[in-house]
Amino acid sequence: MVRRRQSICRRLWSFGDVASLVCCRDSVRTICPQNICSLRAHMEGKYYSEEAEVDLRDPGRDYELYKYTCQELQRLMAEIQDLKSRGGKDVAVEIEDRRIQSCVHFMTLKKLNRLAHIRLKKGRDQTHEAKQKVDAYHLQLQNLLYEVMHLQKEITKCLEFKSKHEEIDLVSLEEFYKEAPPDISKAEVTMGDPHQQTLARLDWELEQRKRLAEKYRECLSNKEKILKEIEVKKEYLSSLQPRLNSIMQASLPVQEYLFMPFDQAHKQYETARHLPPPLYVLFVQATAYGQACDKTLSVAIEGSVDEAKALFKPPEDSQDDESDSDAEEEQTTKRRRPTLGVQLDDKRKEMLKRHPLSVMLDLKCKDDSVLHLTFYYLMNLNIMTVKAKVTTATELITPISAGDLLSPDSVLSCLYPGDHGKKTPNPANQYQFDKVGILTLRDYVLDLGHPYLWVQKLGGLHFPKEQPQHTVIADHSLSASHMETTMKLLKTRVQSRLALHKQFASLEHGIVPVTSDCQYLFPAKVVSRLVKWVTIAHEDYMELHFTKDIVEAGLAGDTNLYYMALVERGTAKLQAAVVLNPGYSSIPPIFQLCLNWKGEKTNSNDDNIRAMESEVNVCYKELCGPRPSHQLLTNQLQRLCVLLDVYLETESHDDSVEGPKEFPQEKMCLRLFRGPSRMKPFKYNHPQGFFSHR
Amino acid sequence: MPGSEGAGEELFPESCFALALRGSWTLAWGLESHPEILRGPNTKMEVFQTLQRLHMTIFSQSVSPCGKFLAAGNNYGQIAVFSLSAALSSEAKEESKKPVVTFQAHDGPVYSMVSTDRHLLSAGDGEVKAWLWAEILKKGCKELWRRQPPYRTSLEVPEINALLLVPKENSLILAGGDCQLHAMDLETGAFTRALRGHTDYIHCLALRERSPEVLSGGEDGAVRLWDLRTAKEVQTIEVYKHEECSRPHNGRWIGCLATDSDWMVCGGGPALTLWHLRSSTPTTIFPMRAPQKHVTFYQDLILSAGQGRCVNQWQLSGELKAQVPGSSPGLLSLSLNQQPAAPECKVLTAAGNSCRVDVFTNLGYRAFSLSF
């Protein structure tokens, strides 16, 4: 680079040399003499350099010079033009003169041009240099900025650093100062300095943990020791069992000899362990009740223990399985339509499945008839059912009308008011039924047994009205509280049914079997006779025209038994439609009457028929006879015969009709009619034997 | 029969009715209530109460002196007091058709009741009892006094079928089973006279307003007119002997009577007949087959009721103006509430062989029924 510059300088020098020569020669006078002087001086000192000259010269003035030179040239050209156009000989000199002058001016122009170039170059160099400097500065600035950023990042990193000790849950500050020994807490140092304080607390924590670890190790060793002891004791106990067994074995002959069936009972208890909870409750309570209060009650367990064992699972599991399999089956049924019916059938069977074990209660009544009750537990429905059977000591001739009296379907109906045993007592069951398409349990009770409410209570199952199945727990106290009353009711029921059974046998043959201890209720001579006693269907009863009142009063439910009695005397026929409530004899049979004699008379058109009905229906308590008043039905019918006698005999004689009265008055009556509704004297007064008004 | 009295009392204990009135049935044997059980009568108590209501007969009615209450007596000896004003008010509910108070008044049926300006007098088997209306409405149902007419000794106590107030004398006339009319002074409570003449028991009484004369009709088929001043029988009409109105198959008995000046209407076994008293001749025979148990004059009409569901309205000429059906199969008493104190309670009530008292706000139709 230096060499290049030198060469340029040399060239410039030579060029400048020429120019300065021209200047010196031609225009010393005309063009600023100082400049040239200075130039000269400069040239004298060193070498001639146009570059240096540029520094010395003023560009403004150069511009003036340039303008001036151009004007001069123009003028000279114009003069030459002028001269040339005028022509002439002397003109040539002048033109020559002028040409020389023009040449000098051209030289000046050339020089100016060179100077301009040099200036330009110089400006460019300067600009470039400045630019380089700026670049360097810029680089430096960026470096610095980066450094700053990096440092800032480092600072935040430091600030965000988390120490492990923050996660440790330390004891609170007050506790720390209270409990930690002073050599750790160092209150005077740490009080003011949170950092030191934290350190001290951490120290304390460590100390405490060390102590606890020590304790833990101690406890472990303690536990080990106790386990070992237990092991030893267990071994001892297991060795005891065979020894006891052998003693038991040895004592068997003694038990037999002394008639003490401990072992048999023990076996039963063993079996009882496999009973589902409700049956177990029933078994325990019934056994207890039998032993304590009622020797006629015997309890037994039936069914296969092995099956029960195989089945044993916690109930929740089995239910879950059930619902799962349900869901699966539902899917499969969707796929395979033809087998839908079969699958539903299977599912129904599964749902209605009962536990393989059942509890048998045999309840002996006074006359040696026995009520056999078999209690089942429906596992998936979580309800209990009962099947009943009555056996009697002597063979009974079953009257036609008594068909339903002892049938297992109805013998226990409404033991408690309204307990028909046709609906499931567990509200949750309805949802289960919906799944498999069972409309109501009613269709299955014959097969499964009846789910009476009292059965659930005996099994300790209590179904609250609005809560779902899972609150159902077998409860001993519930069972115990119902045991006594239920057993008594059961006995009464069987006895009343058997009594009715006997009565029906006579009634069908037209005999009203009044017992000797009830004889005093009726006069000795009763002329009206029962001629018919038949059972009728519920629907038929509802359709009778004279039973409307009873139906409207809601006394004709479908759980009742219905009968039709016909009492006759001469031409008078008295029909009596009878509603026999399953709760007989605490709830009386209800009679509705229709007399066919001189027209049809019912309670709506004859006040005395109405009175006769109320005599048997409302005043039935007089007819109950000796407790437990099983003879009520017979007495009511006999009373009806007496009432008909009174009705017919006291009927006022129509004077206009010829001949004697059809029914001469044989009964002794104080008065024939009484009161505004002209009641007849229906009340019989026993020892005197006359009839009076109530 | 020994102990039959006691048994009778046990049959209708007051408490069981109090239970029924409150509508809260306690279930027998302590069984917890189950929704199924509450449908229809199930327990012994419920069945018994339902039967009792089915066989109830309301024999008598009487309106309180204020005209706002109606007392009704039934065959079980109970008197129930209904509030007519509550039942007739626009905001009447089902409960307002139930008795305000019910109490056991007699052992036997309450055959007849009348109200004086302070007392309710009720009569049944042999006795007449007085109750203070003010006390009854305060539900303190204690009898004020009781009186028994002097009966000749008899095996049974004769019943009192009819009571009649004679305001001029301030006396009460009782008639019934012993075939006599007994006049009782309400001031002293003493029985002043006995009018004898009937040969069978007396069903009904009626007062001729102008002259102090009393009419009585009985089972013997005669209507007898008595002069109270002389205590003598003035006139006898043996209705069954008149061919036009006798109906032998129904019997002779006269079940109901009413008078208006010279006119008398009576019915029962014989047909319902309008008589002119001075001439003792039947003027109109009303064509009604069923025996009538109650008859009354109302404006220019005659209202009668008896066997059958309807209240019959007759023109004096014998034309049947209307038959308005009620809710009972047979009616025994009608009561017109004409107390000037309560014009808003001016109604006709009818009761009979049921536990309901039908209320007719006008003569055209049954508005509703009050029920025991």
TrEMBL record, chain A:
<dbReference type="InterPro" id="IPR019163">
    <property type="entry name" value="THO_Thoc5"/>
</dbReference>
<feature type="region of interest" description="Disordered">
    <location>
        <begin position="312"/>
        <end position="341"/>
    </location>
</feature>
<keyword id="KW-0539">Nucleus</keyword>
<dbReference type="GO" id="GO:0003729">
    <property type="term" value="F:mRNA binding"/>
</dbReference>
<feature type="compositionally biased region" description="Acidic residues">
    <location>
        <begin position="317"/>
        <end position="330"/>
    </location>
</feature>
<comment type="similarity">
    <text>Belongs to the THOC5 family.</text>
</comment>
<dbReference type="Pfam" id="PF09766">
    <property type="entry name" value="FmiP_Thoc5"/>
</dbReference>
<protein>
    <submittedName>
        <fullName>THO complex subunit 5</fullName>
    </submittedName>
</protein>
<dbReference type="GO" id="GO:0000445">
    <property type="term" value="C:THO complex part of transcription export complex"/>
</dbReference>
<dbReference type="GO" id="GO:0006406">
    <property type="term" value="P:mRNA export from nucleus"/>
</dbReference>
TrEMBL record, chain B:
<keyword id="KW-0508">mRNA splicing</keyword>
<keyword id="KW-0853">WD repeat</keyword>
<dbReference type="GO" id="GO:0006397">
    <property type="term" value="P:mRNA processing"/>
</dbReference>
<keyword id="KW-0053">Apoptosis</keyword>
<comment type="subunit">
    <text>Component of the THO subcomplex, which is composed of THOC1, THOC2, THOC3, THOC5, THOC6 and THOC7. The THO subcomplex interacts with DDX39B to form the THO-DDX39B complex which multimerizes into a 28-subunit tetrameric assembly. Component of the transcription/export (TREX) complex at least composed of ALYREF/THOC4, DDX39B, SARNP/CIP29, CHTOP and the THO subcomplex; in the complex interacts with THOC5; together with THOC5 and THOC7, plays a key structural role in the oligomerization of the THO-DDX39B complex. TREX seems to have a dynamic structure involving ATP-dependent remodeling.</text>
</comment>
<dbReference type="InterPro" id="IPR042626">
    <property type="entry name" value="THOC6"/>
</dbReference>
<protein>
    <recommendedName>
        <fullName>WD repeat-containing protein 58</fullName>
    </recommendedName>
</protein>
<keyword id="KW-0217">Developmental protein</keyword>
<keyword id="KW-0509">mRNA transport</keyword>
<dbReference type="InterPro" id="IPR001680">
    <property type="entry name" value="WD40_rpt"/>
</dbReference>
<keyword id="KW-0507">mRNA processing</keyword>
<feature type="repeat" description="WD">
    <location>
        <begin position="195"/>
        <end position="236"/>
    </location>
</feature>
<dbReference type="InterPro" id="IPR019775">
    <property type="entry name" value="WD40_repeat_CS"/>
</dbReference>
<keyword id="KW-0677">Repeat</keyword>
<dbReference type="GO" id="GO:0008380">
    <property type="term" value="P:RNA splicing"/>
</dbReference>
<keyword id="KW-0694">RNA-binding</keyword>
<keyword id="KW-0813">Transport</keyword>
<keyword id="KW-0597">Phosphoprotein</keyword>
<dbReference type="GO" id="GO:0003723">
    <property type="term" value="F:RNA binding"/>
</dbReference>
<dbReference type="InterPro" id="IPR015943">
    <property type="entry name" value="WD40/YVTN_repeat-like_dom_sf"/>
</dbReference>
<comment type="function">
    <text>Component of the THO subcomplex of the TREX complex which is thought to couple mRNA transcription, processing and nuclear export, and which specifically associates with spliced mRNA and not with unspliced pre-mRNA. Plays a key structural role in the oligomerization of the THO-DDX39B complex.</text>
</comment>
<comment type="similarity">
    <text>Belongs to the WD repeat THOC6 family.</text>
</comment>
